[in-house]
Design goal:
Layout: H1 2-22, H2 28-39, H3 54-72, H4 77-82, H5 85-110, H6 114-124, H7 129-136, H8 143-171, H9 178-204, H10 215-233, H11 237-251, H12 253-281, H13 284-288, H14 292-313, H15 321-329, H16 335-349, H17 355-377, H18 380-399
């Protein structure tokens, strides 16, 4: 109940400052992260949570699923195909470069073996749609840049997951079955396409019709069903979420329109709750346990690896230099990496990995995520304003000729 009280109090404060936060460097995401930190062990000690607590994994997974589902709804199949060039560069070139660059830093600065370095690289390579949404949802940001960040963040966690699973098996000297992982990926996509298609076809038939009061719940029920089926069947729930959102947008645009505001609020609430819980894990003792080399590693991952990797992948693209700079910078780490990091701890929990080694890896992942949340959540407004000003200048120049 204390956790609910703290969340409610923080939510009220976030609502009261939300207008100011939308116009400044203040961030509601950072507010919830800091509140969790203060409420957690080592400061006020009013919330006692550990990385192995089920609430942590469940909230992170639900937040990630929800935001992927709503992000997928921003794109229909036609939009996805027409906008694939730039996201394809980011996914097929930028993602591997980010993974390898992060692994190199982990090996060179931290001194991790190559297998563990590549594992860390895979965990930290995906960008997070939860925080990318801060840019994607802003009208000042050019549409093609919004599509790039939206599609990239929606798909790269699904591409990174098989690599995380493979590297966990290699680190633990276990057999890795690529066919099993491929089956999980394909099953997730299939569930995400078939379930919404059937549900919307039923609603379109002459036998069924949703009352206006229940229309926003249509997509909610579809998303919940997709999540349940994917979880029960062992399919990839994150690819299922993104595929389901795209399917809803493609075959049921009226379902998407009815769900839009309701869905955005659900995703925001799950995101903020997960941030509060994650912040409670980052105690002062947790931060003291990270060596100086760990902080240097996190800093370079933030300011060097992603910017260099994406800049290289977007060379000679149609984006202007400002848009390339924003895409290169805005690669936030978040709930995908939290979920992957918790997979490492789960390996130790079931005895397949040494606890101290797993804990060390999780500390490195966590400090990178915290740094990214603070840095990216505090610069989204400034970046959007910078791009918006540039568009206004171009428009003014065009109007004067």
């Amino acid at each position: 109940m204390m956790l609910a009280f703290i969340f409610a109090l923080t939510l009220l404060a976030a609502v009261l400052i939300s207008e100011l936060a939308d116009r400044s460097v203040l961030s509601t995401a950072v507010l919830f992260l800091l509140t969790g930190f203060v409420a957690g062990e080592g400061v006020l000690n009013t919330v006692s949570l550990g990385p192995n607590d089920p609430a942590v994994a469940i909230l992170a997974e639900l937040a990630l699923f929800s935001i992927l589902f709503t992000d997928g709804m921003r794109l229909g199949v036609k939009e996805l195909v027409s906008a694939w060039n730039l996201p394809g560069r980011a996914l097929l070139l930028g993602l591997p470069l980010t993974l390898v660059g992060t692994a190199f830093l982990a090996h060179w600065i931290i001194g991790l073996p190559w297998a563990e370095s590549l594992l860390i690289g895979a965990v930290l390579s995906p960008t997070d749609p939860v925080f990318a949404a801060a840019i994607v949802g802003r009208a000042e940001v050019p549409a093609r840049l919004r599509r790039l960040l939206n599609i990239e963040s929606g798909l790269n966690d699904g591409l990174a997951l098989p690599i995380v699973i493979a590297m966990l098996a290699i680190v633990n000297s276990e057999a890795f079955s690529p066919w099993e992982v491929l089956g999980e990926v394909l099953a997730g996509i299939a569930i995400g396409v078939v379930v919404p298609w059937i549900a919307i076809r039923l609603e379109h038939s002459r036998y069924f019709s949703a009352h206006v009061t229940y229309q926003p719940l249509n997509a909610f029920a579809i998303g919940l069903l997709v999540y349940a089926i994917a979880s029960l069947s062992g399919a990839n729930p994150f690819l299922a979420a993104f595929a389901a959102g795209i399917t809803v947008a493609s075959v049921g645009p009226e379902v998407r329109a009815a769900f839009h505001q309701f869905g955005e609020l659900i995703s925001e609430l799950l995101k903020l709750a997960a941030l509060l819980v994650f912040g409670a894990l980052i105690s002062p003792q947790f931060l003291r346990e990270i060596p100086a080399s760990g902080y240097l590693f996190a800093l370079l991952v933030l300011i060097a690896v992603r910017p260099v990797a994406l800049s290289l992948s977007l060379v000679r693209s149609s984006l202007g230099w400002r848009e390339r700079a924003v895409a290169a910078w805005f690669g936030p780490k978040g709930f995908a990496s939290v979920v992957f990091g918790l997979l490492i701890l789960k390996e130790a929990e079931v005895g397949r990995m040494d606890l101290l080694r797993a804990d060390h890896l999780f500390h490195l992942v966590a400090i990178c995520i915290v740094g990214s949340i603070v840095a990216h959540s505090s610069t989204d407004v400034l970046i959007a304003r910078w791009l918006g000003q540039r568009q206004n200048d171009v428009a003014a120049g065009s109007g004067g000729t």
